[in-house]
Amino acid sequence: MTLTVEVARSQAALRTFLHGLPGVDQVGAEQRAAMLGTRSIKTTAKAQALDLAIRMVDLTTLEGSDTPGKVRALCAKAVRPDPADATCPSAAAVCVYPAMIPVAAEALRGTGVHLASVATAFPSGQAPLDVKLADTRAAVAAGADEIDMVISRGAFLAGRYAEVHDEIAAVKEACGGAHLKVILETGELATLDNVRRASWLAMLAGADFVKTSTGKVQPAATLPVTLVMLEAVRDFREQTGRVVGVKPAGGIRTAKDAIKYLVLVNETAGPDWLHPDRFRFGASTLLNDLLMQRTKMATGRYCGPDYFTLD
């Protein structure tokens, strides 16, 4: 395809910038993530971390078998994760497919829990741009106040950075007042250098959050990948003054895992990111373990895994 002069200039500028970013020391990133993962927090700090992690959960169901009843139950759980304990905080959001937005919107109305929806031909991203934009507009019109989009990984890996940038920018515009989380699908990006470049590209295009994964590709979220993304949002704020959040998703199942991520956030981006507006967990099973650990701290004993609803 013959590029116009304007696109060619934009493409050249993006390539120069993205490939001029400092390279990622993969061994160093893995070692630092592993070291931070050994940090231990106890008593009051642990209790606070568990509550914070609950407040950061995007409780998610993205299955072809989803039903209105399942979505309503998930919304009820997001609002009152532990019906027996009114002090337990609500989750950050419920994330569903676009077809389930009206059901979730009705269930969450007035609760303060956000409604997120995947859009843009999730999880593959393989659809024409006009379809992706229509998908996004329909999701927002139906009640979603957060949109999780997937980038075109094929275009990114082929080096068509301007195409990816412009697509993200167009989806951001289609979001209107809704926040945009841009899913990089890091398991398909192959290198940490690509994770850094994709993070910057998404932020330059207007992303409100950068997100690791759809949860449909392995590996999904990892500590080294999240470390690189946290460094990117930290450096982006230093250079532009704009704050962008981070959302690891897929494979985070235990309270112990969640606390490792919180330590990583604090030590890399700083305490400013220890807030649901700036850090989220995309998870379907994490919440139950957080609740079990929370109950253990309150009562001194573990409850059975069937004490809380299965999602």
From TrEMBL:
<keyword id="KW-0456">Lyase</keyword>
<dbReference type="Pfam" id="PF01791">
    <property type="entry name" value="DeoC"/>
</dbReference>
<dbReference type="InterPro" id="IPR013785">
    <property type="entry name" value="Aldolase_TIM"/>
</dbReference>
<comment type="similarity">
    <text>Belongs to the DeoC/FbaB aldolase family. DeoC type 2 subfamily.</text>
</comment>
<comment type="pathway">
    <text>Carbohydrate degradation; 2-deoxy-D-ribose 1-phosphate degradation; D-glyceraldehyde 3-phosphate and acetaldehyde from 2-deoxy-alpha-D-ribose 1-phosphate: step 2/2.</text>
</comment>
<dbReference type="GO" id="GO:0004139">
    <property type="term" value="F:deoxyribose-phosphate aldolase activity"/>
</dbReference>
<keyword id="KW-0704">Schiff base</keyword>
<protein>
    <recommendedName>
        <fullName>Deoxyribose-phosphate aldolase</fullName>
        <ecNumber>4.1.2.4</ecNumber>
    </recommendedName>
</protein>
<dbReference type="InterPro" id="IPR002915">
    <property type="entry name" value="DeoC/FbaB/LacD_aldolase"/>
</dbReference>
<dbReference type="InterPro" id="IPR011343">
    <property type="entry name" value="DeoC"/>
</dbReference>
